[in-house]
Amino acid sequence: MKAIRVNQWGGSDAAEIEDVERPQPGPGEVLVRVKAAAVNPVDWKIREGYLKDWISLPFFLGSDFAGDIEAVGEGVIGLEPGMPVYGMKGLRGGAFAEYTTALPSEFARKPFMP
Q: Region 24-51: what's the mean pLDDT?
């Protein structure tokens, strides 16, 4: 899958599109097929190194996302593949990718829109 990763602190040229393995949901997580992601100010602050005391490299960028649950990890109750969700991963990053893992506390079900 494609994902945007930062391997060094810097400007927009520090963010690179890379081919990486699709993540698997761990216990208590879901795998989301990302349909949309937004640039949150925390994304460029991470990329430029403003948060390097809390973030280590390499780092997958992306906080805000929307998509559909693809798979659920062990212990996840009440969520199932196909459910549309949106959320914010904060400093965990990884939303600028085709797939991302997320904790149920990091997202909500999208409301039904006819």
A: 97
- CATH label of the domain that carries residue 96: 3.90.180.10
pTM of structure: 0.92
Largest CA distance in the chain: 45
E runs forming strands in the chain? 2-6, 15-19, 30-38, 59-60, 64-72, 84-88, 99-102, 107-109
Q: Mean pLDDT over residues 79-98, rounded?
A: 96
Domain assignment of residue 15, yes or no? no
Report how far apart, in Å, the C-alpha atoms of 84 and of each of 36, 51, 101 are: 12, 31, 14
* The dihedral sign for the CA sequence 29, 31, 32, 34: positive
